[in-house]
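Appendix B, record 7
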Amino acid sequence: MPLRSRLEGWLTPPKPYILNPREHAVNAPLGRWNLYIGGARQRVPGYVNLDIFAMPGVDVQADAHALPFPDGLFTRVECDAVLEHVQNPGRVVQEIERVLAPGGWAHLVTPFCHPFHEYPKDYRRFTPDGLRELAGGLEVIDTGWRTGPAATMLVFTLEFVKLLLPWRWWRALAHGVLGWLLWPLRYLDVWLLRMPRAERLGNHCYLWARKP
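Structure tokens (predicted):
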């Protein structure tokens, strides 16, 4: 690994969130063919990685509104932080339902209280009830919050401070310094995600659904 990449890895602060363990309490095993929508530069073992842009790690470049796969091919489809970026999320979920095999699983994750971020556009935010409305013919198995109020406060604090700074390198420095100082506060979500009012400041939500 190049020295610059190693230095960036050492200096990058931990993520300002922890994941709700309840999200993966559902038993949704992978099959022979599984699809990951919006993987960008990630490596996603066990999945065909589809993204709107061609870049390292992407297996198929395509628009999620018209998935280039036959009906009933995939055992599991992951759609992680994608639906806020598409013009017609209902159409995308219909495509996910189409390419799922009977008994297959769909896992949707979307932001709620989260800063604006274009990829290439940013159109909307969702709640768990909003994801239920998109499910269509899929059977909803579980919904909830992936990341909670502490994550919301941390990501907005980082973005607010960077907003006040005029130069890009200042913003990068502030992100690094504040990220290292504040990241332990993310563990407040271990407690906060158990509170009934956590949904008022939830950061990302999820939905698990199954094709009949």
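Remarks on this record: The chain has a mean pLDDT of 94. The radius of gyration is 18 Å.
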